# Entry
Amino acid sequence: MNSRLYIFGFLLVICISCKPKFEGSEYSPGETNPERFLMLGGTFASGYTDDALFRYGQEHSIASYIHKSINDVSPTTFNQPLVEEGSVGISTNGLSRLILGYKTDCLNETSLSPVRETAMGDANILNNIYGGAPFNNMSIPGLRTGNVFDEDYSNQNPYFARMSSSPTSSVNDDFSTLNPTLFSVFLGLDDFMPFIKSGARNDSLPDPTLFENNYRQMLDNLTSSGAKGVISTIPDISSAPYFTTVGWNDLVLDSANNATLNSIYNPLEFYFNVGNNPFMIEDPSANAFGVRPIEDGELILLSVPLDSVKCYKMGTIFPFRNEFILTNPELQEIRTHLGIINDIIRSLAFEYNLALVDAEQFFSNIDSGFPFNGINMGTGFISGGAYGLDGIRFNARTNALLTNEFIKSINQKYNASYPMINATNLDSAFFP
Amino acid sequence: MLLTFLCLLTYGNSFSQGYQVNFQGQKQQGMGLAGTAVFMDGSSLFFNPGSVAFSNENSINIAVTPISGNTLFIDSTTGQGYRSNSPIGTPFSAYGLFQLKDHAKLKLGIAAYTPFGSTVSYEDNWIGRFALTKLQLKAIFIQPTFSYRIADVIGIGGGLVISTGDVVLEKDIPVQFSDGDFASASLSGSALGFGYNLGIHYDLTKKLSVGLNFRSKIEMNVDDGNAIFDVPESLDPNFPDGTFSGALPLPQVLTFGVCYKANDQLTFVLDVNRVGWKAYDTLAFDYALNTSSLEDTKSPRMYESTFAFRGGGSYDFNNGLSFRAGGGFGFSPVQNGYITPETPDNDRWYGTAGIGYVFGDHFSIDATFYYTQMTRTGHNTETGLSGTFETKAIAGGLGLIYKW
# Structure
């Protein structure tokens, strides 16, 4: 037996030297100067997720991750307008962040669901925290391209008011103080978002000429001292769980409900079957009654009151109101418009010789689903592992993956080799 | 003694082709893992039951070959490196060879050996954690064997193979507890399979012999495995602990061997293996309790049948001492797109060396050394894991023979 022990010992000694060597990678900033990095963006880049601005989201935002990569190559300061640790955050409606909890519905069924952490959000975190130094992350929830030069903006957006250098300074004023040497812009989605989120009812789509002028002036300012940078196209957000969790034909009828609906709608020449059926929606242009079945491709927003759907005949006897629906013509309009705006961004990237991220492609990859180191990424609500609990914004893992698109783009354009973020171990949702 | 020996051993390694393990005889290991066309010792019960007909001894032979392998995985996206922390594997073999009287034409034998297995585990939180954290696969073959010399120059032999196996597979699940820890799954089970080992040996001349050996495929079916999930309480209904069934093929191996005895001292051997890895096309798990989160899985493996070429020589001094050396080349059954952390495999060269000493009429001892390294870059289409696996493995074997 002793001889075996010796052999084990002998092998152990030899095998210290028989491990494959790991050299690690060499990093370089290439032609970029990362000394003063600026992230300029809207909701996504600010760290707003789970429908609130809160500390964790900020620390796992695209801005934070890009800086983490930069910092590995060349340590630089990164001043973020962080909210207090432990705060429940605050949403655009004054509510706290969403967490996973249990909810009992009108059928008295309790299930796992996103719930507000507390009844109200934490309004204290909206107090101004500007400390004299410009912020490196000038991403502001809701920031539109047109707001960048608005000197009244802090009166319109409390998320900017909390970080602006003065009540009359514009976003442009504040980031100009930083005099960035390297910038990253993920702006434009919020130009579309209010229109999309309201079922194409409120607000309007951005005017292309105005958009181009604003974007151009912003780039003029950013590049005036020779800074390098990356900008991004605007993704089609309509594949996010917020728009796809309730399917157009998720109306399942038993024979009783089937008979009821047929008796109501057969005179309008709409027919139902036992099993899956399209929901009914309001559409003034459809017929004299302004009602029709929703069509394949049309989207039902997660803002629908689900209890009304389950127990109070919403979507059937009482058709969905237009604010909960994106119809095919509306989607067509949004997508065409998105194409026009993205063409503008692409040509500006070319004109200003900047790196460009194809965010559309990235979102579309998630829509088709792909395996990522054993994780099946997709647009399933929570189960898809990509989006946060609000069904629109990304979780930490996907923020890191999108960050890698920015880094890849910077690396390619400027012969740099900033490291990619390991998104595998980053968080998705925490289950009770 | 034999039983103690078997019980003490943990087992396996992941550094042969696929999950094949080729440490079944110390003399053959010294000569590049070849020796199908010559009677060496009791280990020929494995290499070629036909050769055993040319023995003239009763013997007991036990051997163990501790192997230590280290794999480094470098992720293609981040450039970060992660290491395996696999335990030392201990493939073993034990042979008993008997004849009823001297120079009898019929020989009987019993063999126990470990021709398939793999034990591989990776460091905590490694980037492939959702593909695999640990695999432990053991198969022990028990083979009662007969061998008969049907002519002065021809021997045939055959054995029934009873295979018992255990498998443990662990990985993390990409859902998190409230404290951020990831959930995990552990699948374990055991299986029993049957097969056979046939061989023929032909002395073409006094110096030159050939051998042909066929070891059949054995399908290892796990019918009542345990699936255990460590998940957040709220997901318990989604991941119910329960049973599963699955199967793993242990492929057939056809070997043609040549042996040339240049003189009384010097012997050369050459083996060519054809391994029927094509049998391993899918790794499927069929869970007794399915839910929307826990569906049956079918993971493509798409192995291809492969060749391996092995050769070596031995020089016997008159004082009972022998020196051996050899090497070989094996093709990997793993195609690009199907590389897994279970078998970070590639085509590889290897080298071996051995030494033997005979003490008087009854005892002899053999020791061997084996080294290989390989690098495999590629990805897995199912998991998306993409990068480079670098592996180095070193093994030292020791065998004891008592004969009478």
